[in-house]
Request: fold
Amino acid sequence: MTKLYGCLEGGGTKFVCAVGSRPGQILEEIRFPTTTPAETITRAINFFKNYPLSAIGLATFGPLDLNPASPSYGSITATPKNGWSNINILEEFHHAFDLPITLETDVNAAAFGEWFWVPDNHKLDSMVYFTIGTGIGAGIVIKGKVVHGLTHPEAGHMRLPHDRKKDPFPGICPFHGDCFEGLASGPAMNRHWRQAAELLPKDHPAWDLEATYIANALVNEIVIVSPQRIVLGGGVMENIQLFPLIRHKVLEMVNGYIASPVFSGTLVEYIVPPALGKQSGMLGALALARTIK
Amino acid sequence: MTKLYGCLEGGGTKFVCAVGSRPGQILEEIRFPTTTPAETITRAINFFKNYPLSAIGLATFGPLDLNPASPSYGSITATPKNGWSNINILEEFHHAFDLPITLETDVNAAAFGEWFWVPDNHKLDSMVYFTIGTGIGAGIVIKGKVVHGLTHPEAGHMRLPHDRKKDPFPGICPFHGDCFEGLASGPAMNRHWRQAAELLPKDHPAWDLEATYIANALVNEIVIVSPQRIVLGGGVMENIQLFPLIRHKVLEMVNGYIASPVFSGTLVEYIVPPALGKQSGMLGALALARTIK
Reply:
């Protein structure tokens, strides 16, 4: 009999829970709004209780404490999301289920999902997944493992060139002002242009500026980690006119320095949209559940 | 009988070759200037021929082709160092010796050396070594392995905030102008201040500006990779007044965002000088020779 796994993608706005074995083999999926932690987590647990699961993969917004040696291991740490700071979601699931359960950030799970399920990615030693939406983050998969260290990566907060003469917008990150997320997240674009970014015409200068910030960030990720592919997901990247702009600017900025045939090309197979579409995070949680050791 | 290993650190100015088994157990070491590839490599090979070696570790300036599937695997690629482009140093050593031989960049070897030989580093899952000197680079060791991907990391070429009102210096990188290396390498400092940087008084504003660029780069490495320790080596970092300036600026820039007890402290054990001093690269090549699989 095929084993069943539970997977959860918990965002600041909604939670998605599903049960299945692989992409295309999802038995049931439910979605509900993120309210209080007690209500939201109970709803998820009650859903999973209906199935004879082999393991559960949780992928949630962060920051998370993923250090097994820490007393708050498994918790959401300091989040602006009201009521959710210091909620130990992993512990609540362990109380409810006598099963292997694993917790990752949503972006790390999406990175793992794109690596695990997509044959063309699975052969790579090193891959990065960026989400560029309400927030910005990047997960790294090296030799089949999600990269952790002191904490999990927080690449949305990298520091970028910002020419205030060309763009006086000060950024909206409450911690860093004009870090990557402060300049280029969806909410940053909305604030900057005083309208919903997705309604801006495709030839509006906002897109060129957005592509510039994203390209700078990609160059930094490229020179620091040297990934073999970069996947760009998240709501902002649904504006697909950004892809050719970003690829062009990355090539221009790298300026022939990286000694790889990839950089003699168009980057069309190097900087790519998610093969799993909006399912990367959810299917990543499923892949994590399947690979718990 | 203790096995003997050969190790080589090849820089743009000088080559150092040594034979030994571990730190403190070096039988002989020679140093000679980097001249033509033929002369320099022959001299190194002749030295190693005097010993019954078990393996050889080569750590040289880059960029290097370290992709085993590439036809130019083992070569120095496009270097400004006259005559050295497309020299396949690994192949020349394989012709001369029927032994396991490994090649790494000098900065990756130094990162591995600091991880392998220093007990307090060896327990870490994730560590970064920066060299900040004639050039700038950073090697990453994750779970005991040097990180490679598309090529090797080239973190000297990351893009940083550069306030041209405060610092109109345009940078000296021939590829990128004001990338990290263009702004903050030893030669960049010399050009900027029109004198040898190490002769600038310790309270000269040059050091504060230098610490600002380095701190920006460290913040980017921290948010992208989340290393558990950062070692700063290279000639510029011999100006040890930089360490407290950098630690202070990194804390200020991170501004409480990283949820780790390390960032509630002074970073005095997080951002550190090399425990192996100027020997990190050489002893890293030795460690690589010992661990060839």
Remarks:
- Residues 93 and 213 of chain A are 39 Å apart (CA to CA).
- Chain A has a mean pLDDT of 96.
- The radius of gyration of chain A is 19 Å.
